[in-house]
Design brief:
Layout lengths: L3 E6 L5 H14 L4 E7 L4 E4 L5 H4 L2 H6 L3 E4 L7 E3 L3 E9 L5 H14 L5 E3 L3 E4 L2 E13 L2 E11 L6 H5 L4 H6 L21 H16 L3 E3 L2 H4 L2 H11 L1 H5 L8 E6 L2 E10 L2 E8 L5 H11 L12 H16 L1
Parallel strand pairs: 1-2, 1-11, 3-4
Antiparallel strand pairs: 2-6, 3-5, 6-10, 7-8, 8-9, 9-10, 12-13, 13-14
């Protein structure tokens, strides 16, 4: 049962600070608590937990133009942020996590602004067939309590060329989604209702949140910034190792299929033993991907009978690939 409601609105546009604050809330949220957090970033790209940044982003050009690149804890694909959009995070524990209720809260807010929004798939909101909000989800055990996060970005307005200039997904990925380009499937709410503003979106979501759950404390983040947990998370999230990972060695990469989607796999072996596994994907379920990596590491590729179906197929695809090079 929810007995504590908190609303936070970040006053900084520094993406690293904002991301670390969200991570802090996810780690520290207690049972019975529900947090609504709003944040906006200046010129940033967030990639999903298991994506290869160099395949998704024009890294050198974006950094040269003053952009910031960040990696989420959640899965999903790469997203461009600027001050024309607002990001939201809804954070609680598994006991009070109700994804349908959270989605309906957002739909009610959009519709109250004259936006005939619909849920598309499991992680997009669309209007007139065009995406204006992408969402991602994460469940994460912390000290025996499962913490839950739904977060997303809402495109109110957008620098018109930024998405196509900086996001560089493969042609094959776009074809799987049935679109010609990244920008061809997105729209901004200001195109539907020219009077919509970032501030107006925040206020409407806040109003419906309070109407649905009751009065909430609206807090500043200064106290958060002083916490050791926040400082540790900030240092992790700005590190090059976290953002860029191990550079993908294309000569060691092969394709496989997980959950009916093509993914890039990189296996590092010594004497037929898998000593490291990298899986590059925009799959939403990061725990599932991690479970495959954990299962494969330490396995002899000639002894795979005990592996699960997905892991076994990856090894079989690796052997087929090795025989062709």
């Amino acid at each position: 049962m929810i007995n504590k409601l908190s609303i936070y609105i970040s006053q900084t546009t520094n993406a690293y600070i904002n991301q670390a604050s969200e991570a802090y809330f996810l780690e520290s949220v207690k049972e019975g608590e529900l947090i609504l957090y709003f944040w906006a970033n200046k010129n940033a790209i967030f990639i999903g937990r298991n994506q290869d940044v160099f395949s998704e982003v024009a890294v050198d050009e974006f950094l040269k133009d003053g952009g910031s690149i960040l990696r989420r804890f959640s899965g999903g694909g790469a997203v461009y942020h600027d001050l024309g959009n607002i990001n939201f995070s809804i954070i609680t524990t598994e006991k009070d996590y109700d994804l349908t209720q959270f989605r309906n809260l957002l739909l009610d807010a959009f519709k109250s602004l004259g936006i005939d929004a619909k849920l598309s798939g499991r992680n997009d909101f669309e209007v007139n067939g065009f995406k204006f909000s992408g969402n991602a989800y994460l469940k994460r055990p912390v000290n025996g309590v499962v913490k839950c996060l739904q977060h997303g970005t809402i495109l109110v307005s957008l620098f018109p060329d930024a998405v196509s200039k900086y996001l560089t997904p493969s042609k094959a990925k776009l074809e799987r989604k049935g679109v010609k380009s990244v920008e061809s499937r997105v729209t901004c709410l200001c195109k539907i209702n020219k009077d919509i503003t970032v501030e107006g979106i925040i206020q409407r979501i806040k109003d419906i949140f309070i109407a649905q759950y009751g009065n909430a404390e609206e807090n500043t983040l200064e106290k958060v910034y002083g916490e050791d947990l926040y400082k540790n998370l900030y240092m992790q999230l700005i590190s090059k190792k976290w953002i860029y990972g191990e550079y993908k060695l294309n000569e060691n990469c092969f394709e496989s299929i997980i959950k009916n989607s093509k993914v890039d796999i990189e296996l590092c072996l010594k004497d037929d033993i898998i000593i490291n596994t990298n899986i590059y994907t925009d799959e939403m379920d990061v725990c599932f991907i991690q479970s495959i990596k954990d299962e494969l590491n330490g396995v002899n590729i000639n002894d795979i009978d005990s592996l699960t179906t997905d892991s076994k197929k990856i090894v079989e695809d690796y052997k087929r690939w090795k025989n062709t090079i």
